[in-house]
Amino acid sequence: MRSAFRPSVTSLLATAVLLVGGAQLPAAAQATAPAAASVRGLPDFTDLVDQVGPSVVNIRTLERASSNNAGGSGADEQMLEFFRRFGIPIPPGMTPRNPRGDRGGTPDEAQPRGVGSGFILSADGLIMTNAHVVDGADELIVTLPDKREFKAKIVGADKRTDVAIVKIEASGLSAVRIGDVNRLRVGEWVMAIGSPFGLENTVTAGIVSAKQRDTGDFLPFIQTDVAINPGNSGGPLINMRGEVIGINSQIYSRSGGFQGISFAIPIDEAVRVSDQLRATGRVTRGRIGVQIDQVSKDVAESIGLGQPKGALVRGVEPNSPAAKAGVEPGDIILKFDGKDVEKSVDLPRLVANTKPGNRSTMTVFRRGSQRDLSITVGELEPDRQEARAATPEPNKPQSSNALQAIGLSLADLSAAEKKELNVKGGVRVVTAEGAAARAGLREGDVIVAIANTETATVKDLEAALGKADKTKPINVLFRRGEWAQYAVIRPSR
Q: Is 445 a catalytic site residue?
């Protein structure tokens, strides 16, 4: 539509010249003519397809049938892959069948499981794809654009970033060129090649919708409006220079089909992961043992931080690197290893990219001031389930005029409660009404600080409350179970 419209603008200007008998156009028209001529048309992707197409492969996954499971997939295996990928229950009518049409399968017989895409990293057969494409597969079949097929083996896969490297025994292959994600700009044209629904070598195009989209702990995704569907997973996202700048990995959809929002793993992050997979078959990441949350604007202003930045520590794992370094629930981590933590999602990435055993410096904001802590980074391990202690016998509630004014009834912590929460002191909320309830406090919460003052007992809290300016919002640091967070109590008007 745009290219068709531009000539009409030019023709209108030409008509204007004729109507004035060849007289000079007004200044405004003169300014319009070169502006219209400088507008570029839509991009041509044909050369990019010729350049990158030979490097994009189709990946079919197979699994061994057994006597006690369904074998294969006579139903639409691409839709089954979609259901598996996005956690959607498989409809009763789509139970996998084998090629003979029954629901059984000969033991050790390889049956189709799913389909995805990938791209060639090196001429000797290294291929990058998504971890979810190869997860659970007993066999991998890689089909090149020239229709040659190879059995592939998994070099390594990392579920946390959804990156995998597979290898085929081949030589002289056409490898992709890796681009610079830092040069990528929102609004620039990009292209994808893959096998949506098993349709090999399908080309789609669009623009970069956003960068640094936070949808995962360890990856800031590239968001595009390139049409991505089941089977595109693992295929390349390509810039107009013919360079790979991402791996197409996820879509946002309420219907199961493409809805204009797709996500790609930045290629620099994927290459960093792939280097470790190729070297050791696994990825090593750092950890410090904290649970974090965002810092809201109200909290930042009330505690004297100024602007909302950093990562709020909601909980500290016992005996973790953070606990040994002296990190406390309610701290706000502003820097790690000299790098700013602007948002809470920045911290896991900075820590994960730090080599375990490295000694780093962490800057935290605690009760109105900053302090530096030295921390030895540990190694990230699989999530562990933690046992919960029994609920201890509570102390009797206390109240006063000052507490009633903000809607609180409190009780000192018992020794058992302090041990369970791993705190030196604090006060338990018995009831929360009025201003306290509106701030989000509720029965069972444990207040450990108010107005930037530690509160080991109810008397401590009442003393701090007496010194606070009642005309301004009052910040409250409290624990809810294992988690710490802030609330802002606003005075009644």
A: no
